[in-house]
């Protein structure tokens, strides 16, 4: 494509949602510019469990080998209120965000998508995109683009639409925030295939071993209880220590943690003018069920025909209803599971019972994590 000027579509944010949308639109022959303020590979606050829906999309994009690199999960150990129970939990794989996100961007580039890292983008009131290079010494000067469509996939912390009141965030009360880190060489790390889920009044913490042997820790925490507990590192170390994982607790106390803004949120609208929101940028619910990446990728596929309608002169508005149809039932399920996890004293007896009734437990664990649906594929969604 001609460098940067007047692409058909600008995609802001090259996480799983944005990179998937760029791949699909590139496949359909459109001139796409994908922009991210980060350079890749980069880590992110994430449990790194990729559900079957996301795996199906990777395969549809020719990234089956990447799925094979992931570590298949077989068991979840849930610990809360001083007790633990083991549940059969199959279908997801763990895969580092460094590996997944970089591979998706590479797949987009193979489809002739132009990728611009280290560049922050903002959408103006007139549906233009202002580019702000972050490496002032090496990058070209700021630029303004006028694409026919803009896909905003800038995640929870994204501010690309701050100047557009019609997209204002509605942020839930009693909210939690996310934290995450990666550690290695820890003696009581979970074995490959095992997901530890530790619940506590301060929040919940997921622990899993990645494809490269590092251990991913990701938590959704209550802000006030975390502050009183001495901050994210001390709080997560205490949760791990209470579960009898002294090695992981020491590693967590010493690790550098990344954070996110408040998790549960929605937008007034996810489409207006020529602008479409997908992934976390379209709204988010607490992450216990480990599906955010797959939802983002599914939205990245599903938005393509709506974007194409805009290229032909239509408006983005119909994406509002389609987006709600795609996600609202899943978000309700996610809220229900998150509610149960906030109350471990009530939830643990049910979990223990499920551990003793493996067939029902497996079925409910599948429903809770969205794995009871068949894997999505690009054709079926798009
Ligand atoms: C504690 C925790 C645990 C989780 N565990 C899981 C899990 O196990 N499995 C799962 O599937 N999901 C999980 N999630 C959710 C998952 O991380 C997100 O849903 C997923 O990353 C969303 O993808 P995305 O592409 O929408 O956004 P992101 O992955 O956040 O990507 C957004 C991108 O936009 C870029 N960006 C932001 N602003 C701009 C700008 N102005 N200009 C240019 N670029 C910009 C950022 O640099 C970033 O690369 C978890 C989340 C949390 C908080």
Please describe what this structure looks like.
With 382 residues, the protein is α+β, with helices and mostly antiparallel strands. The chain has a single domain (9-172, 263-381), classed as FAD/NAD(P)-binding domain (3-Layer(bba) Sandwich), CATH 3.50.50. 36% of the residues lie in helices and 24% in strands. The chain has 13 helices and 22 strands. It has helices at residues 16-27, 52-60, 64-69, 97-110, 223-228, 232-242, 246-254, 292-302, 304-311, 319-342, 344-356, 358-368, 378-381, and strands at residues 9-12, 32-35, 49-50, 71-72, 75-80, 83-88, 93-94, 114-116, 119-123, 129-133, 143-145, 149-152, 169-171, 177-183, 194-200, 203-209, 215-221, 258-262, 265-267, 271-272, 275-277, 283-284. Strands 6-5-15-16-17-14-18 form a seven-stranded mixed sheet, sandwiched between helices. A six-stranded mixed sheet has the order 8-2-1-12-21-20. The longest helix has 24 residues, at 319-342. Mean pLDDT is 88; it is low at 372-382. Flavin-adenine dinucleotide (FAD) is lined by residues 12-18, 35-38, 44-50, 120-121, 153-155, 158-160, 178, 180, 218-220, 260, 263, 279-281, 287, 290-294, 296. The site of flavin-adenine dinucleotide has 43 residues, from helix 1, strand 3, strand 9, strand 14 and strand 17.
Helix content: 25-40%
What binds here, in terms of ligands, is: flavin-adenine dinucleotide
**C-alpha-based Rg, rounded:** 20 Å
CATH topology: FAD/NAD(P)-binding domain
**Mean of residue pLDDT?**
88
User: What fraction of residues sit in β-strands?
Assistant: 15-25%
Biggest β-sheet description? 7 strands, mixed
The span between the termini is: 24 Å
CATH architecture heading? 3-Layer(bba) Sandwich
Q: Output the CATH class name.
A: Alpha Beta
**Class from secondary-structure proportions:** alpha+beta
Total helices: the number is: 13
| Count of strand segments | 22
């Amino acid at each position: 494509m001609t460098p940067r000027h007047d692409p058909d579509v600008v995609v802001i944010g090259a996480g799983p949602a944005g990179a998937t949308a760029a791949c699909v639109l590139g496949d359909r022959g459109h001139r796409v510019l994908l922009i991210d303020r980060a350079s890749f590979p980069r880590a992110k606050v994430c449990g790194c469990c990729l559900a079957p829906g996301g795996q199906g999309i990777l395969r549809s994009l020719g990234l089956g080998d990447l799925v094979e690199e992931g570590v298949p999960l077989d068991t979840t150990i849930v610990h809360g209120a001083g007790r633990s129970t083991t549940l059969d939990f199959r279908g997801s794989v763990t895969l580092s965000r460094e590996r997944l996100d970089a591979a998706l961007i590479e797949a987009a580039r193979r489809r002739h998508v132009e990728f611009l890292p280290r560049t922050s983008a903002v959408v103006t009131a007139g549906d233009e995109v202002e580019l702000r290079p972050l490496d002032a010494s090496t990058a070209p000067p700021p630029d303004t683009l006028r694409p026919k469509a803009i896909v905003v996939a800038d995640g929870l912390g994204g501010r690309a639409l701050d100047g557009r009141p019609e997209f204002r965030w509605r942020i839930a009360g009693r909210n939690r925030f996310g934290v995450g880190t990666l550690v290695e060489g820890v003696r009581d790390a979970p074995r490959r295939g095992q997901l530890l889920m530790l619940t506590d009044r301060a929040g919940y913490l997921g622990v899993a071993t990645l494809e490269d042997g590092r251990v991913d820790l990701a938590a959704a925490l209550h802000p006030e209880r975390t502050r009183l507990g001495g901050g994210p590192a001390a709080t997560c170390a205490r949760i791990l220590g209470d579960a009898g994982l002294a090695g992981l607790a020491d590693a967590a106390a010493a690790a550098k943690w990344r954070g996110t803004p408040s998790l549960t949120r929605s937008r007034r609208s996810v489409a207006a003018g020529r602008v479409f929101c997908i992934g976390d940028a379209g709204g988010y619910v607490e992450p216990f069920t480990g599906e955010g990446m797959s939802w983002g990728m599914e939205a990245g596929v599903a938005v393509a025909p709506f974007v194409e309608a805009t290229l032909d002169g239509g408006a983005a508005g119909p994406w509002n209803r389609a987006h709600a149809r795609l996600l609202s039932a899943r978000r309700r399920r996610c809220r229900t599971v998150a509610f149960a996890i906030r109350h471990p004293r009530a939830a643990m007896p049910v979990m223990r019972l499920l551990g003793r009734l493996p067939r029902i437990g497996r079925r409910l664990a599948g429903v809770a994590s969205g794995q009871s649906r068949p894997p999505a594929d690009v054709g079926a969604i798009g």
